[in-house]
Amino acid sequence: MVFVPNGTFQMGSPNTEQGRGNDEGPQRRVTVASFCMGKYAVTQAQWEAVAALPQINLSLNPNPSGFKGANRPVENVSWNSAMEFCARLAKKTGRAYRLPSEAEWEYACRAGNTTPFYFGETITTDLVNYNGNSTYGNAPKGIYRKQTTDVGSFLPNPFGLYDMHGNVWEVRFV
């Protein structure tokens, strides 16, 4: 786990940001209390271990991912399944686990930056795993790996969190 310090940031994106979705505004100032977040996305090995624990509310598919690998991120997981994962882990360890809120996730992802990505204005396949056939801004086309990569394959953001852009979609509490 990584400690994410409290802070205030501009949540959402400006109207002028390239590729901005309708659900990314209006921008607003948000204050977030400190919290802890997993350093990496949950791996398939971690998911399988927790899925083997006693059921609390619903059953979990122990291996839902299409791209197999113990150190790859788990994928094809619903919000309800993610909540069950947190509940089982909490019961096993005696500690509280939960999904981050939308504000917490965005704050942790930005890590003090105001650009579209924590590393700047554009994205490349040297920095994250995504379909490199699609470009963003002035970025060149890149590699299309056609699969997930092991967690931590790319550099972390300034908070020490890995893979906050690319690889898989994240589930958060809303």
Automatic annotation (TrEMBL):
Residues 1-26 are annotated as: Disordered. Residues 1-170 form the Sulfatase-modifying factor enzyme-like domain. Residues 7-19 have a biased composition (Polar residues). Pfam families: FGE-sulfatase. One of its GO terms (molecular function) is formylglycine-generating oxidase activity. Transmembrane segments: none annotated. This is Sulfatase-modifying factor enzyme-like domain-containing protein. It comes from Microseira wollei NIES-4236. The lineage of its organism: Bacteria, Bacillati, Cyanobacteriota, Cyanophyceae, Oscillatoriophycideae.
